[in-house]
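Question:
When you can, review this sequence-structure pair and walk me through the tokens.
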Amino acid sequence: MTTPTSSGPQAHSGTSRRGFLGVAAAGLAGVLLAPGVRLIEVAQAAANAAGASPQVRWGMLIDSTKCASGCTDCVSACNSENGLSGGILPTDSQWIRKIEIKEIRTGKTQSLPMMCQHCAEPPCVDVCPTGASFKRADGIVLVDKHICIGCRYCVMACPYKARSFVHEPLSQQKPDVPRGKGTVEGCTLCVHKVDKGESPACVSACAAAGHGAIVFGDLNDPNSDISKRVASYASRQIREDLNLNTGVRYIGI
């Protein structure tokens, strides 16, 4: 089993805690938002938004053997695309970061990018009391800023430390990437680009730099490049012991 070092992701909640919070979330999801409209229905409507097909499962395959420890091309591209400071502001979000992982049995360490893993069974969705955290029909996990109350249950539930809280007022935001103080956010797989038939910014940047470490595509399509590679090369999930069926897979770990 591949285990992250102290700089990598760690599990923050057990099964029993997730179960308890899930029950609480289910109860609160029935609260009326307006006459005849419940929060859970808002989340379900968002999950089935235009462009999200249940026939598709968007995912990434990352070859860690092609990912150099000093390379941050994917991180820089994400920051630029989504209007993030890149760590200039100490409280600003990180949607993708480089981490070091260590194999307990061999002591082998590797560097790789870590972002929201877009789980098929996302803990962040399980614990969200308002339905703000939701999974689209095509597998992309998002946060609806209009109904996020900033409780940060999802931040605690995510075993990948992939969610960030916006502490400060924001300005000069990107039109396609709405953000807001007091809300939680994380990697969206550049959903605004995906819905236009384009690849996420990190994937494009990695390819443009000649690394070719990240492949993006439809995991449900046996003829897609990503599906062919998953079928041909041994790949793993980070914290696969949690059985979350992540949309992000890794080669070489």
Remarks:
- The first helix runs from residue 15 to 28.
- The helical segments are 15-28, 39-47, 73-82, 123-127, 153-157, 191-194, 201-208, 225-232.
